[in-house]
Amino acid sequence: MTTTRHLDAKQARQEEIALAYQAACETRRGKRHGVVVTPVEVVDHQVRAVLQLAQDQHGPGRDTLMRIRALDPFGGTGIYLARLIQLVPLEPCDKIILASRAVMVEIDPDACQAAVANLRQVMAEETGQDQITPLVCQADTYGVGDEVWDMTWRLTHLYRPSRGEAA
Per DSSP, what are the bridge partners of residue 18? Predict the structure, then answer.
Protein backbone atom coordinates (compact mmCIF):
# COMPACT_ATOMS: atom_id res chain seq x y z
CA MET A 1 0.00 0.00 0.00
CA THR A 2 1.35 3.41 -0.98
CA THR A 3 0.46 6.58 0.85
CA THR A 4 0.80 10.05 -0.56
CA ARG A 5 2.55 12.56 1.62
CA HIS A 6 1.36 16.13 1.70
CA LEU A 7 4.01 18.48 3.02
CA ASP A 8 3.62 22.22 3.19
CA ALA A 9 6.49 24.40 1.95
CA LYS A 10 8.10 24.76 5.38
CA GLN A 11 7.93 21.02 6.05
CA ALA A 12 9.34 20.26 2.60
CA ARG A 13 12.25 22.66 3.13
CA GLN A 14 13.17 21.05 6.47
CA GLU A 15 13.03 17.58 4.92
CA GLU A 16 15.13 18.75 1.96
CA ILE A 17 17.85 20.10 4.29
CA ALA A 18 17.89 16.93 6.41
CA LEU A 19 17.99 14.55 3.45
CA ALA A 20 20.77 16.53 1.75
CA TYR A 21 22.83 16.28 4.94
CA GLN A 22 22.11 12.54 5.18
CA ALA A 23 23.20 11.99 1.56
CA ALA A 24 26.37 14.03 2.06
CA CYS A 25 27.25 12.02 5.17
CA GLU A 26 26.70 8.73 3.41
CA THR A 27 28.96 9.85 0.56
CA ARG A 28 31.65 11.23 2.87
CA ARG A 29 31.59 8.40 5.39
CA GLY A 30 30.93 5.56 2.99
CA LYS A 31 27.86 4.54 5.03
CA ARG A 32 30.13 3.55 7.93
CA HIS A 33 28.25 5.71 10.41
CA GLY A 34 24.54 5.99 9.82
CA VAL A 35 22.70 9.27 9.88
CA VAL A 36 19.02 8.80 10.49
CA VAL A 37 16.71 11.61 9.49
CA THR A 38 13.50 11.89 11.48
CA PRO A 39 10.60 12.38 9.04
CA VAL A 40 9.19 15.88 9.29
CA GLU A 41 5.72 14.52 10.06
CA VAL A 42 7.15 12.77 13.15
CA VAL A 43 8.97 15.94 14.20
CA ASP A 44 5.77 17.95 13.80
CA HIS A 45 3.76 15.42 15.81
CA GLN A 46 6.31 15.47 18.63
CA VAL A 47 6.58 19.27 18.69
CA ARG A 48 2.80 19.71 18.69
CA ALA A 49 2.46 17.08 21.44
CA VAL A 50 4.98 18.88 23.66
CA LEU A 51 3.31 22.25 23.08
CA GLN A 52 -0.07 20.71 23.95
CA LEU A 53 1.32 18.94 27.02
CA ALA A 54 2.84 22.19 28.30
CA GLN A 55 -0.51 23.92 27.96
CA ASP A 56 -2.41 21.00 29.49
CA GLN A 57 -0.12 21.01 32.53
CA HIS A 58 0.46 24.74 32.97
CA GLY A 59 -2.54 26.38 31.34
CA PRO A 60 -3.22 27.59 27.83
CA GLY A 61 -1.77 30.67 26.26
CA ARG A 62 1.27 32.78 25.75
CA ASP A 63 2.54 32.74 29.34
CA THR A 64 2.99 28.96 29.29
CA LEU A 65 4.64 28.95 25.87
CA MET A 66 7.02 31.73 26.89
CA ARG A 67 8.37 29.59 29.76
CA ILE A 68 9.55 26.81 27.45
CA ARG A 69 13.25 26.00 27.33
CA ALA A 70 14.08 23.69 24.44
CA LEU A 71 17.03 21.33 24.16
CA ASP A 72 17.70 19.17 21.12
CA PRO A 73 20.52 16.84 22.20
CA PHE A 74 21.14 15.34 18.75
CA GLY A 75 20.40 18.43 16.70
CA GLY A 76 21.49 17.40 13.22
CA THR A 77 20.38 20.13 10.84
CA GLY A 78 18.21 21.82 13.45
CA ILE A 79 14.88 20.40 12.26
CA TYR A 80 13.32 20.12 15.74
CA LEU A 81 14.10 23.69 16.78
CA ALA A 82 13.22 25.00 13.32
CA ARG A 83 9.81 23.34 13.44
CA LEU A 84 9.28 24.51 17.03
CA ILE A 85 9.81 28.11 15.93
CA GLN A 86 7.57 27.58 12.89
CA LEU A 87 4.74 25.81 14.75
CA VAL A 88 4.54 27.63 18.08
CA PRO A 89 1.56 30.00 18.08
CA LEU A 90 3.45 33.10 19.20
CA GLU A 91 4.02 36.57 17.78
CA PRO A 92 7.40 37.18 16.09
CA CYS A 93 8.83 39.10 19.07
CA ASP A 94 7.90 36.20 21.36
CA LYS A 95 9.45 33.68 18.97
CA ILE A 96 12.72 35.60 19.32
CA ILE A 97 12.55 35.15 23.10
CA LEU A 98 11.75 31.45 22.70
CA ALA A 99 14.71 31.05 20.32
CA SER A 100 16.99 32.66 22.88
CA ARG A 101 15.95 29.89 25.31
CA ALA A 102 16.67 27.03 22.89
CA VAL A 103 19.87 25.02 22.49
CA MET A 104 20.90 22.19 20.23
CA VAL A 105 23.93 19.97 20.67
CA GLU A 106 25.56 18.22 17.72
CA ILE A 107 28.97 16.61 17.36
CA ASP A 108 29.31 16.84 13.56
CA PRO A 109 30.63 20.24 12.40
CA ASP A 110 28.95 19.82 9.00
CA ALA A 111 25.58 19.34 10.69
CA CYS A 112 26.27 22.35 12.92
CA GLN A 113 27.01 24.48 9.87
CA ALA A 114 23.76 23.32 8.21
CA ALA A 115 21.82 23.97 11.42
CA VAL A 116 23.14 27.52 11.78
CA ALA A 117 22.13 28.35 8.20
CA ASN A 118 18.76 26.62 8.61
CA LEU A 119 17.90 28.32 11.90
CA ARG A 120 18.94 31.75 10.60
CA GLN A 121 16.66 31.30 7.59
CA VAL A 122 13.77 30.12 9.76
CA MET A 123 14.21 33.04 12.15
CA ALA A 124 14.31 35.49 9.25
CA GLU A 125 11.08 34.03 7.84
CA GLU A 126 9.28 33.78 11.17
CA THR A 127 10.46 36.96 12.89
CA GLY A 128 12.03 39.23 10.29
CA GLN A 129 15.49 38.95 11.88
CA ASP A 130 18.24 36.32 11.89
CA GLN A 131 20.63 37.56 14.58
CA ILE A 132 19.01 35.81 17.53
CA THR A 133 18.68 32.10 16.88
CA PRO A 134 18.70 28.97 18.99
CA LEU A 135 22.29 28.25 20.02
CA VAL A 136 24.08 25.54 18.09
CA CYS A 137 26.69 23.90 20.33
CA GLN A 138 29.26 21.47 19.00
CA ALA A 139 29.85 18.74 21.57
CA ASP A 140 29.42 15.04 22.20
CA THR A 141 25.92 14.73 23.63
CA TYR A 142 26.91 11.67 25.63
CA GLY A 143 29.38 13.76 27.60
CA VAL A 144 26.92 16.55 28.42
CA GLY A 145 24.63 16.88 31.43
CA ASP A 146 22.83 19.77 33.05
CA GLU A 147 25.76 22.06 32.28
CA VAL A 148 24.14 22.57 28.86
CA TRP A 149 21.97 25.22 30.58
CA ASP A 150 25.03 27.07 31.87
CA MET A 151 25.83 30.05 29.64
CA THR A 152 29.57 29.60 30.12
CA TRP A 153 29.35 26.01 28.87
CA ARG A 154 27.20 27.06 25.91
CA LEU A 155 29.58 29.84 24.88
CA THR A 156 32.57 27.51 25.21
CA HIS A 157 30.89 24.96 22.94
CA LEU A 158 29.19 27.38 20.56
CA TYR A 159 29.69 26.23 16.99
CA ARG A 160 32.04 28.54 15.11
CA PRO A 161 32.78 27.94 11.45
CA SER A 162 36.43 27.38 10.66
CA ARG A 163 38.10 29.84 8.30
CA GLY A 164 36.79 29.56 4.78
CA GLU A 165 33.35 28.28 5.83
CA ALA A 166 30.35 30.50 5.36
CA ALA A 167 28.82 31.58 8.65
Answer: none
pLDDT along the chain (167 residues), means of 10: 77 91 77 75 96 95 94 95 97 96 94 95 95 92 91 91 61
**What are the residues whose beta carbons fall under 8 Å from the beta carbon of 67, sequence distance 6 or more?**
54, 58
**CA 30 to CA 10: how far, in whole Å?**
30
Going from the C-alpha of 134 to that of each of 72, 75, 139, the distances in angstroms are 10, 11, 15
What residues does 103 pair with on adjacent strands? 71, 135
- State pLDDT tens for residues 92-119: 999 999 999 999 999 999 999 999 999 9
* End-to-end CA gap in the chain: 44
Which of 99, 93, 91, 96 is CA-nearest to residue 134?
99
Q: Whose CA is closest to 145, among 105, 115, 112, 113?
A: 105
